[in-house]
């Protein structure tokens, strides 16, 4: 079969218009690598794809031309038959009372062909939230200072932030991804480049809060901790060395004298997260022991194997495996305590967590889901006005065929992990649910292709998990958005993400408050954009130019933007132009969630992250200038409460 014909069969768009309107044709060599990296999928004759049914909606599915009737079908959950029937024409009309869930659909036609496909019965929409209009404090947890942490924000600091935000009338805290990174690569600190999206980053644990904490674990390190605490940049290597040592001491104490209640809770956690937790712990033990990427491991370990993991747990690595589980249990329970505190304070959202668009190819998720995650391909974006060369994020993402083979369970597992303790999550680059821009290793970002994803099935899975966990889902829908995409998302109850910096018309005018959607999170900026103080002072433009990066905006254009902002504020009878004026403007929109950055409340000039840089800028390392204990004095509380009054909870 011709290369381009094969690509079409895989849903690969080999030609497209980029964000600048230029026609792009993928290089044949790049296309061949992309095709080789994708699983073949299951050849089918009766139905081409998964069946999606929305509960309460009439549903029918047309059979392929190759099918011969009559055709028998049955919907199965495990060994239980949920429903069955027969059709004598080329359409299956589904029963209206199928329970919400994920099933296997068994098909047998008159010619003897038998096939199976996933069948998903979804709620009509994702969970819509049980609140009207409220606001959140957004923060990069690693950058939080306090009088007691070890140089990186931790879950006890998060409790302090929850109490602070609750006192201000906010309904939650928005956080950077908390995904597990690589414990032996502390400098590899981007929360958006995880080892696994299924587990937590142990550096956020408050070790001193553990019942098993041993002060001797940090004996002689008080000066080092004080230095880490005082630094303006997170010293990940220094923090990691101390925390991992203290965690190992705590684990040894737990093993030596486990309190019955603690041991019972630990075993309950292991059971709840099985088999993924056990597999993750085995992967980490093997990764440390072998010291190479998993595709270079001995053959018996290159694929997850339950019998092999069980054997590993009985061998000399048993304690190391249990230690990984102990650390994840500790992190989970401390994050759970934050969720419970927010609930006690009456916060209607609680924790709003970010979910990265992909994972590192040598991490656990890529090893665990080798069919559903393509390690040879990187997720990115084609050239556009802000990134004229395109973007390669260096992350492995899901692929359509592998997800369908696994009945979309890897995607659901990812959602469940983030929804465990969240009232809302944000899916980074949600456009990837419909199509992913994939770049083969060794090629530049402009040589990628768009690959179609099973959009309807992924929306159905999202709705299932969202309703089950009562968790609002927000899609980060910035960038080159396909026609009809936002409408489809809204139809399924997935919220939009509207950033005021980008909400401008062709003349550069900021759009008015009526422009913003109700089911949306609205914010002035993001972690990848300038803070308000930096934007207003041109600091972001100066910094990028000093780094040799084209900021994509001239000083004249920025002066024009500032004028347009003043015009928009005045149009809504807001006379000042400080950040609280902007917050007040956004608070008046009908959008049900408003996120206000803690950096903006504190007047921080430097932005947390500058895309396109690695070591030129301290990405994911900057610490806030003010400790939690002093924040109420540093924030203009009266101005903030005035700005957010109409969407704040009652405060004393």
What's the helical proportion of residues? 25-40%
Molecular shape = globular
The order of strands across the largest sheet is 21-18-15-12-11-24-23-22
Mean pLDDT rating: 95
The number of helical runs is 21
- What is the rounded Rg? 26 Å
Largest sheet features: 8 strands, parallel
Give the termini separation.
71 Å
- How many runs of DSSP E, i.e. beta strands? 24
Low-confidence spans: none
Q: Based on helices, strands and strand pairing, what is the structural class?
A: alpha/beta
Strand proportion, as a percent range, falls in 15-25%
3D architecture notes:
The protein is of the alpha/beta class. 34% of the residues lie in helices and 17% in strands. The strands form six sheets. An eight-stranded parallel β-sheet has the order 21-18-15-12-11-24-23-22. A hairpin with an 8-residue loop joins strand 19 (435-440) and strand 20. The chain is globular and about 75 Å long. The model has no long low-confidence stretch (mean pLDDT 95). Pfam families: Glyco_hydro_77.
């Amino acid at each position: 079969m011709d290369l381009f014909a094969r690509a079409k069969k895989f849903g690969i768009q080999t030609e497209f218009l980029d964000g600048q309107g230029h026609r792009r044709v993928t290089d044949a060599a790049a296309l061949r690598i992309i095709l080789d990296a994708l699983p073949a999928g299951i050849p089918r004759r009766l139905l081409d794809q998964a069946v999606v049914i929305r509960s309460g909606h009439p549903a029918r599915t047309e059979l392929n031309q190759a099918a011969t009737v009559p055709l028998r079908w049955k919907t199965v959950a495990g060994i239980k038959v949920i429903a069955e029937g027969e059709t004598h024409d080329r359409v299956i009309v589904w029963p209206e009372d199928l329970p919400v869930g994920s099933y296997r659909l068994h098909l047998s036609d008159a010619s003897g062909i038998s096939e199976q496909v996933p069948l998903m019965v979804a709620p009509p929409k994702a969970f819509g939230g049980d609140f009207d209009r409220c606001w959140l404090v957004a923060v990069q947890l690693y950058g939080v200072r306090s009088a007691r942490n070890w140089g990186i924000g931790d879950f006890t600091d998060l409790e302090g932030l929850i109490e602070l935000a609750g006192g201000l009338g906010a309904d939650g805290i928005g956080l950077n991804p908390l995904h597990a990174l690589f414990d032996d690569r502390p400098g590899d600190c981007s929360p958006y480049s995880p080892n696994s999206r299924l587990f937590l980053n142990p550096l956020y644990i408050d070790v001193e809060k553990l019942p098993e904490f041993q002060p001797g674990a940090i004996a002689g390190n008080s000066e080092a901790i004080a230095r880490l605490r005082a630094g303006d940049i997170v010293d990940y290597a220094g923090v990691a060395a101390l925390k991992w040592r203290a965690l190992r001491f705590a684990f040894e104490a737990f093993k030596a004298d486990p309190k019955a209640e603690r041991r019972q809770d630990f075993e309950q956690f292991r059971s709840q997260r099985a088999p993924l937790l056990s597999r993750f712990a085995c992967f980490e033990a093997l990764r440390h022991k072998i010291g190479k990427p998993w595709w270079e491991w001995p053959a018996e370990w290159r694929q997850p194997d339950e019998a092999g993991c069980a054997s590993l747990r009985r061998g000399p690595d048993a304690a190391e495996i249990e230690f990984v589980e102990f650390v994840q249990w500790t992190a989970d329970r401390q994050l759970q305590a934050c969720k419970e505190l927010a609930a006690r304070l009456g916060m209607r959202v609680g924790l709003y967590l970010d979910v990265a668009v992909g994972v590192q190819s040598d991490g656990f998720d890529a090893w665990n889901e080798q069919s559903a995650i393509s390690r040879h391909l990187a997720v990115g974006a084609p050239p556009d006005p802000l990134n004229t060369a395109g973007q390669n994020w260096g992350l492995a993402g899901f692929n359509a065929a592998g997800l369908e083979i696994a009945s979309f369970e890897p995607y659901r597992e990812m959602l469940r992990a983030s929804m465990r303790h969240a009232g809302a999550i944000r899916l980074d680059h949600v456009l990837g649910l419909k199509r992913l821009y994939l770049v083969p290793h060794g090629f530049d970002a402009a040589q990628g292709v768009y690959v179609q994803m099973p959009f309807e099935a992924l929306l159905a899975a999202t709705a299932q998990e969202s309703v089950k966990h009562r968790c609002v889902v927000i899609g980060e829908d910035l960038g080159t958005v396909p026609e009809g995409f936002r409408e489809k998302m809204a139809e399924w109850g997935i919220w939009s993400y509207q950033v005021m910096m980008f909400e401008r018309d062709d003349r550069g005018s900021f759009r008015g408050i009526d422009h913003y959607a109700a089911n949306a999170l609205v914010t002035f900026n993001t972690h990848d954009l300038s803070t308000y103080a930096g934007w207003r002072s041109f600091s972001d433009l100066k910094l990028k130019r000093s780094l040799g990066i084209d900021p994509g905006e001239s000083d004249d254009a920025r002066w024009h933007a500032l004028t347009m902002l003043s015009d928009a504020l005045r149009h809504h009878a807001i006379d000042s132009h400080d950040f609280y004026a902007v917050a007040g403007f956004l608070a008046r929109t009908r959008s049900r969630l408003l996120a206000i950055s803690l950096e903006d409340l504190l007047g921080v000039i430097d932005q947390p992250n500058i895309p396109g840089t690695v070591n030129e800028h301290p990405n994911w390392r900057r610490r806030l200038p003010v400790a939690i204990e002093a924040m109420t004095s540093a924030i203009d509380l009266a101005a903030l409460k005035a700005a957010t009054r109409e969407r704040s909870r009652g405060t004393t």
